[in-house]
Specification:
This protein is of the alpha+beta class. The chain has a single domain, classed as TATA-Binding Protein (2-Layer Sandwich). The chain is built from four helices and ten strands, in the order E-H-E-E-E-E-E-E-H-E-E-E-H-H. The strands form two sheets. The chain has an eight-stranded antiparallel β-sheet. It has a two-stranded antiparallel sheet with strand order 5-6. The longest helix has 17 residues. It is globular, with a radius of gyration of 14 Å.
Length: about 150
Amino acid sequence: MALEYRLTLAGETPVDQVAGRAFPEPSERPTGTARRLFAEHKEKYGFNVTIVAGKDGYLGLETDDGPWEWEPESCVRVGFRLDKFADIPWVVTNMLTVVRRVLDTGAEDATFDFNGDILLFARRKGELTKHRRDRWWEHYAGADQLIPG
């Protein structure tokens, strides 16, 4: 079983722009068709990444306060599939570095979730709110500093 994380950005930002924000080095950028890009980064970063544009999005996630739903009209999802045999703290640091780049280079409302079930943060109107602080953010050294909030 793999570990999967997903960054969801509200809006119609083109996937190639999101790929450029996530991976500034052109040789590392996911490639593919206009609505779906993919890159295998297991050796270098410990994960594969898929970037997909969509319409009529739906997320139903657990938060610190109970169930939460979000239905963006359009969105771009950046999916991270982690190598379960890699050094997970190292992989999480690499993944959060990519997430931070995307957040720092755009103002979209966003969510970041684990396995499609657990909300780790939501950014609405520029304000980022973290969830699972004691069970996730404090578990990975440096995670809280990589994504302030």
